[in-house]
Model the fold of this input.
Amino acid sequence: AQKVTQAQTEISVVEKEDVTLDCVYETRDTTYYLFWYKQPPSGELVFLIRRNSFDEQNEISGRYSWNFQKSTSSFNFTITASQVVDSAVYFCALRNNYQLIWGAGTKLIIKP
Amino acid sequence: DAGVIQSPRHEVTEMGQEVTLRCKPISGHDYLFWYRQTMMRGLELLIYFNNNVPIDDSGMPEDRFSAKMPNASFSTLKIQPSEPRDSAVYFCASSLVGGSGEPQHFGDGTRLSIL
Done:
């Protein structure tokens, strides 16, 4: 069965703190893709990153970084020096052929 | 380049009325997806198209829902008759190739309220 688990329903931190959003997935496929999307309060869904199952290199983009570990079936997302504008719901998703299997999302609140 | 364009952004209508949601995918994208998002069920895939042909509509909740894609640049999702439980945010997304790792790019969504 394909499944994505985001165990953290809501996280609240003070601005400038680092925060990590957890994502654990289940799949029997050897080739798969993982994604992170951001949904700010305005409601749109914004694509952040894609990672394929053959590439376990961590990725950094500005204050954002992603840690992909096949051994633990995890694809965690870290925001360094968080800002109020990072407040949003963040979704992790697993690509199963055409369909995205979505996690429930983690609501991130950054307090000024 | 323009992203996925959905209209209207908001729709409020009375139960029993027909509702039509519209979507213009990103030019050149050959896959189009319709999703529904609610607090209770999260994001649900309703239907998707490849090259204007519906491939899988197993997520369409019931016969009151229908979707069409008459050409590569336009799709509609219709609800007739609408019911209060259809209230949700409806997203359209498009991607280059559905089976690969290409990401789906989403429109801003239509917030639908059925009174």
